[in-house]
Amino acid sequence: MEKKKYYITTPIYYPSGKWHIGTCYTTIICDALARFKRMQGYDVFYLTGTDEHGQKIQKVAASCGVEVKSYIDGVVDELKKLWQLLDISYDKFIRTTDADHEKAVQKIFDVLYKKGDIYKSEYEGWYCTPCEAFWTKTQLVDGKCPDCGREVELTKEESYFFKLSKYQQRIQKLIEEDKEFLQPTSRQNEMLNNFIKPGLQDLCVSRTSFDWGVKVPFDPKHVIYVWIDALTNYITALGYGSDDESLFNKYWPADVHMMGKEIVRFHSIIWPAILMALDLPLPKKVYGHGWLMFNNDKMSKSKGNIVDPFILCERYGVDALRYYMLREVPFGQDGNFTNEIFLKRRNSDLANDLGNLVSRVTAMVSQYFDGVIPKPSIKQDVDLDLIDLAQKTYPEAAAYMDEMRAPEALESIFRLIQRANKYIDECTPWILAKSQDGRERLKSVLYNLCETIRISAVILQPFLTQTPAKIFTKLGLQEGKLTSFESIEKFGADIAGLKVDKGEQLFERIDIAKELKVMDEILEQQKKIAAKSQAESAQKADNVVDVCMIGIEEFEKVELKIGTVVDCRKVEKADKLLCSKIDLGEREPRTVVSGIAKYYTPEEMIGKQVVVVTNLKPVKLRGIESQGMVLCASDEDGNLALISPIKSMKSGSEVR
Ligand code: MSP
Question: Which of 60, 96, 218, 487 has the highest Cβ tally under 10 A?
Fold first, then answer.
């Protein structure tokens, strides 16, 4: 019989290089789900990757003096190492700089344009000239650029728009009627009330203010902005838009798109609308999980907590971290991380409950039966409760996992583990061992315990990636039939006769007070390292001045000419702008818009000779195409002066 497919995705990650345990959350929960489904016999495709385009990353790379792609390559390698450390079992890692993806994105853009779902218009925003960035009014801080604090101009930029408004009704219907589509349900009202019902606006899907992105195929001065480039990764990763769409035909639509709540809007409104426009089936579920918080802060500014996954895994084990993440973020809500809760969880659940159970039971099998798991013999009523719970645990955990409730699934498993510990106390094996009859009964007790441990370890495999294998070794089990989900549908597997190996403790108990001090020391150490590396980057930045020195060949690329201002006027509704007509010895004077109205009146400008950069790409400012830039000098006291030749020159003379 053909296996049922299961396609699960994380969002593609920004290659920020700042990984903290919160950023690992989506990937870990998807990994647990993917592993669970694989064990249930599904044909799983688990996708993750990186979202590599945009101005921000371009700037970061530039500030490091590195070519942007090689900068990102380095960060992506780090991210892949992190996923390897956390045992993330993805089937594909897509990068939006992959040639296949870029090609498919262009194709999709073209199709949407030809269908009329993408059209060209003007994007109005607040433009900060030094930062070359557009901001919306709400992003401004005190009316100024949020990045550099300088004045901004209300400006228009030619852009392509996606007709999101056209899909308003279909999206509303989708969220209102398909209750499975957006989960948890609380997010449905959030989307309906905050975004959909107030009216969906068409979406700007291209930019001309930077060029690190996929070019619009028929208009390459535009790059395709985040929505169409990033969201489409979920289908291009499967070969959609390529010569081989077999994976797409097999796995699409996605069974689950998993993501943090802050990007649910993009996935539950914009993404389905793009798919509708492409006439493609919609994902079955979009799930917006809560955040892992650090003392009420989403960000990594750890506030006294170790949030570096590399350090946590190295000191406490990958499974301790995976367990915490999967156990502590309740369904749809935020979870909290502190060093102390982390250590306590590790001690109470992993060392005390699970670790103790395994070491007590393997020790008793070694002591009373030479390490060989006995055949069950005399049954008693007290067994029934344990057996019943052991048989219920898998279906219960599976039902929770179907609802993405990993914490509850783990709770069920640990209820069984705790029940087994209680069973030891109820049956008192150490007393049974003292008499002949008691030893007969002890056979059943220890068999039941070994079988319960096996069942627990089998169900734990999708959550913890290292401990179950260690438990199997301790029970003398090879990976195979008896470590599969099918083998735990019924209690009573054929494990009698297996030779146990007590071996080392699964989880050493930690002295919490002592360890918290060590953690503080690590944090101190980290602070020192951070301060040092900050100082080093400052030093590097100084050096960048050298790195940024340009050769004469580069300088020669800039075309500077003397121009004579033949006309000048103020730009309507823009206090700072003057629009000049400048004679550069060409057939017609050029139009140049400059932010100098505070310093020069139009009358003063007329007749002046100025230095103009003549080979600058034209930009539209307030709807006027500016065909060059006038050079000025400015000082820290806020003075500004035009640069003029000290004697009159012919218009169009070269400046060298
Ligand atoms: N690049 C976009 C997604 C585009 S998808 C077409 C993005 N990337 S991200 O790197 O910022 O986030 C990746 C995932 O990490 C998101 O699911 C985000 O919610 C998650 N997390 C980042 N910090 C988090 C916590 N503190 N807690 C839980 N998850 C959080 O968004």
Answer: 96
Determine contact, residues 147/102, Cβ cutoff 8 Å: no
- Asked if residue 471 belongs to a domain, the reply is yes
Domain termination residue (choose one: 465, 488, 511): 488
Element (H, E) at 521: helix 512-547
Render pLDDT for 85-136 as a digit per residue (tens, 0 to 9). 999 999 999 999 999 999 999 999 999 999 999 999 998 888 887 666 778 8
Q: Give how far Cα 85 sits from Cα of 26, 78, 113, 247, 321, Å.
A: 15, 11, 43, 28, 11
Is there an atom of ligand 1 within 6 Å of 294 CB? no
Q: Within 10 Å of residue 625's Cβ, how many Cβ atoms?
A: 13
CA of 175 to the centre of ligand 1 (A): 22
| Ligand 1 proximity of 11 Cβ (cutoff 6 Å) | yes
Number of H-type helices and E-type strands within the chain: 23, 23
Residue 33 in any domain: the answer is no
- Ligand 1 in contact with 22 (CB < 6 A)? yes
Sign of CA dihedral 319, 322, 324, 327: negative
- Average of per-residue pLDDT values in the chain: 92
Residue ID of nearest Cα to ligand 1 atom 18 = 260
Residue 633 sits in a domain of what CATH number?
Answer: 2.40.50.140
* 348 and 477 inside one domain: yes
The CATH number for 425's domain is 1.10.730.10
Verify whether ligand 1 is closer than 6 Å to residue 51 (CB atom). Answer: yes
